Amino acid sequence: MTLALDAVIGPRDLTGWPAVWLTVFEQESARRRCSWGRHNRYRTSQEVMGLTARETTAEHVSLSSVLYRRSPDIASLRRLARDTSVWAQRAHSQARADFTAAHAARARACITRR
Fold this sequence. Notes:
Elements: E1 2-12, E2 18-28, E3 36-42, H1 45-63, H2 72-113
Antiparallel strand pairs: 1-2, 2-3
Helix pairs in contact: 1-2
């Protein structure tokens, strides 16, 4: 599996969050299986935080599976994944709220100018 990330972080936008562009390239080449590749683009802080929340939650779920439950070595990694997932979900919620507030303020400004 090959994974490449292309990230650009710019100045804050009207929501107060930094402007972010992230491209994720994934590719797997195998002799006996089908090769595949994909890329996804995320163009806002809100999208990047959503991706982070989904991926960290999936990792926490994976580490909480029956296969790892009895392994003491995985316990600290599982806690880290849980804490990161909680943080990412909160950050995503805050990014969504800030996005909504910024666009509502812009809409109000357009209405009051009339």
